[in-house]
Amino acid sequence: MHEMVKGANVGLSALSEDVDAVIVSLGWASPTGEGDADVSVLLLDGHGKVRSDADFYFYNNPVAADGSVQLLGKAPAGEGSEDRIGFDLTAIPADVERVVVAASRYEGARFGELDDLRVILTDGSGEHLLRFAIDDAGSVSAFIFGELYRRAEEWKFRAVGQGYDSGLAGLAADFGVDIDDASDDALDEASDDDAADRDAADEVPDGATATGVAPAAPAAPALPVAVERVPDTDTALPAVPAPRRAADDAEPGKALARPRTAKKKVTLPKAVKKSLAENESWKQARLFPVSALKSDRDRETRATSVLLSVMAQVPEFGRRLTAGFGAPAGRMETFTEVSLPHGDNPRRPDGVIRVERAGRLWTALVETKTNGNALRSEQVQAYMDIAARRGYEAVITLSNDVALEGSPLVDVKIDGRRKHKVALRHLSWAEVAHHAQLLIRHEGVGNRAHAWLLEELLHYLQHDNSGCHGFQNMGSAWVPVRRGIDDETLCQGDPRALEVVESWERLIRQVSLGLGGDLGQKVLPVQRARRGTDPADRRARMAEQLCAEGKLEAELRIEEAPGALVVGADLRTGRLRTSIEVPAPTQGYPLTWAKRLVRRMAEAPADLHVETLVEDGAGGPRGTLEKLRPEPADLLPRNGAKITGFRLTLIKSMGSGRGNAESGFIRSVDDAVQRFHGTVVVHLERPASRTAPATEGAVTG
Q1: Which of 277, 382, 465, 661 sits 20 to 30 Å CA-CA off 648?
Q2: What is the C-alpha separation between 53 and 186, in angstroms, rounded?
Q3: Measured between alpha carbons, how far is residue 222 from residues 97, 164, 264 in Å?
């Protein structure tokens, strides 16, 4: 992989032959586990300006109509997060000369507070081509990581590393975008619980008006001198442009269309309509029935056909699942019962996905497993070989297992002598259900028919007989490890402890997907580790802790929650502990804080444990909510120590079985997280916002 320094540039064709479509990943880590940022992309013409406001892609304008740009969303990576952007370089219009890749923070946060800032560019086969590490971000709220640009019909990448004090709105305005985040219409269309709208409002800097950014906003700094030290043979790229004049790119007497935070799409209500059935025994007719499924083969065939047919019919959904694999945005067709030659015996993959865009064909083979059936290495290897010979771009595996970074589900060998490289990608059924739920319950789709198709798909996936229940077995090492902990015979270095740790990570990722789909918010596992730590090293330390203490622990970062939700399993006592730490207010009196917290927990379980956190780190007063309700003052330290926050904890017994039965461990962890969030976290005060929220009369579009 090509390592880049600030100001350097490199031609993509010199790194790979498969650069018609690339993925640019912006990554970062947070010492607290809660730092985050949002990516944005600007398409610039020869003058260094956007051709129109439609050339500005951010969290509420994530996909270009021509498929040239797709914001693919966040995913956990190593000890932090990674936000990916897919580019179809063949579809970028000819009059676009530069593509700026940036990111922004909000609510006063700065990039200097993040660790391991980096850019990684990946080719169409999934191979990492270049990396640009940034260690001097500084105290800025917006940052240009790099840019793609044309030179002599070739695409190149430049490592920029430039900060902006004026935030996302200032950055966009300086490249010619009119920002109108605070318009009355946008507020009318926004809902109180729409996280994207709140985040967008937070990006408007001080001094912004209802019609855009005030002209007095400070200009961004010029590009670093280092950019000019590694010039191309052609004319050097222009520096950061001055703010656009009001008359630029506008027809006389015609108002400019400005980016808006709200968008009207069809979502289905959560409330179930009253049934017309005579009694509860009547079952509603379904598009995808499950009653006839008798064997695992039947389940695999039906699940593949159901999923692929909905992907082809609902463009938003199909694009959501394939964009991260390098597929372009175009006409999609899907197939099942396909036979492909392979030696003496033809192979029959479960499905094929084909996407056409401007004459370019992207194709992937699909291998599906349901229930507890595991992917077989020899089967996937055969499909990889077939795909390489036939020029297919990817092999996609679907199963109830969850892929982990640095721990592949199957071992396959890649023939490095082949020019055509095939990417091996994995989707869990939990991820499929997660994306379907986000679209039909929160983000919306193009029309009601698409929403209905997704609802039928979601009902099918969640049915007990479909076999698509997600990760549902802690593995063969679970019972021996628990017995070893009970009788104190589990030794340090036992490889079975590492297997349990990996299963625990898979479970936490699935719990995050389920909660995020319910809430319509980002829920990501927090992976605290030293900068540059390998995932295998982190898991090895967790396995050592499991052997020594008999405990498993994880943290979930929930968008708009005041802190990380911590879930821990004590295998010695058989108890699950879910907790969250709430920082103390910056104003007011401690007694007022305690009373307000107890009032907010009016509907929380009586056995909720509340502990006061004090400055010296020693344990403060604590008690159950039942005892604190009449006497909130019992939370105040007797010695007058300074209160730094409060820790809220629920404790419950965990299931003993390794699987997902009613008494199973997996079910008990999922129930504990859902219960704690639904009875405790939702009642906590959200982090303060710099802008006023939408009015109570606001409705969803």
Answers
A1: 661
A2: 16
A3: 19, 10, 38
> Which tokens in the block code for residue 502?
């990996």
Cα separation, 158 vs 148, in Å, equals 6
* Residue pair 83/34 in contact by the 8 Å Cβ criterion: no
Q: Residue 241: phi, psi to the nearest 5?
A: -75, 155
Residue 380: predicted pLDDT: 92
Q: Characterize the bridge pairing of strands 56-57 and 38-44.
A: antiparallel
Q: State percent of the chain over pLDDT 90.
A: 45
Residue 154, CA distances (Å) to 13, 151, 300 in order = 7, 5, 44
Structure tokens at 610: 């509340």
Euclidean distance between CA atoms 531 and 312, whole angstroms: 41
Q: How far apart are CA 699 and CA 701, in angstroms?
A: 6
What is the torsional sign of CA 429, 431, 434, 438?
negative
The answer for residues whose C-beta is within 8 angstroms of residue 650's C-beta and 6 or more apart is 577, 578, 579, 605, 607, 608, 609, 672, 675, 676, 679, 680
Whether 701 contacts 189, CB under 8 Å: yes
Q: Which residues contact 667 (CB under 8 A, 6 or more apart)?
A: 655, 660, 661
Q: Rounded to 5 degrees, what are φ and ψ at 584?
A: -70, 145
Q: How far apart are CA 139 and CA 550, in angstroms?
A: 42
Question: CA dihedral in degrees (670, 671, 672, 677; nearest 10)?
Answer: 90
Tell me if 608 sits within 8 A of 585, measured CB to CB.
Answer: no
Residue written as token pair 């540039």: 9
Closest CA to 21 of 75, 103, 85: 85
378-386 CB contacts, 8 Å cutoff, 24+ apart? 380/410, 380/412, 380/424, 381/410, 381/412, 381/413, 382/342, 382/347, 383/347, 383/349, 384/412, 384/414, 384/422, 384/424, 385/342, 386/340, 386/342, 386/347, 386/349
Contact 527, 541 (CB under 8 A): no
The predicted structure's pLDDT at residue 657: 65
- Angle value at C-alpha 126, between 119 and 361, nearest 5 degrees: 120
Q: What is the dihedral of CA 568, 571, 576, 577, to 10 degrees?
A: -40
H helical segments located in 159-295: 167-174, 184-189, 195-202, 226-229
- Strand 2-4 with 128-134, pairing: parallel
- State how far the Cα of 162 lies from the Cα of 222, in Å rounded to an integer: 8
Collect all residues with Cβ–Cβ distance below 8 Å to 78 and sequence separation of at least 6: 27, 29, 116, 405, 527, 529, 533, 535
pLDDT, tens digit, 9 for 90 and up, residues 614-644: 987 777 899 999 999 999 999 998 888 899 9
Distance CA(106)–CA(408), nearest Å, equals: 35
Number of C-beta neighbours around residue 372 at 10 A: 16
Q: 652: helix, coil or strand?
A: strand
Q: Residue 527 pLDDT more than 60?
A: yes
* Helical spans, DSSP H, in 412-494: 429-438, 448-462, 478-486
The residue among 488 and 688 whose pLDDT is bigger is 488
Query: Which tokens in the block code for residue 99?
Result: 């593509």
Of residues 58 and 254, more confidence is placed in 58
> Could you give the CA distance from residue 98 to residue 100 in angstroms, rounded to a whole number?
6
User: CB of 568 within 8 A of CB of 553?
Assistant: yes
Which three-class secondary structure state does DSSP give residue 345?
coil
- Tell me how far apart the alpha carbons of residues 239 and 101 are, in angstroms, rounded to a whole number: 15
Which band of pLDDT confidence, cut at 50, 70 and 90, is reported for residue 227?
Answer: very low
Instruction: Please state, in angstroms and rounded to a whole number, the distance separating the CA atoms of residues 342 and 340.
Output: 6
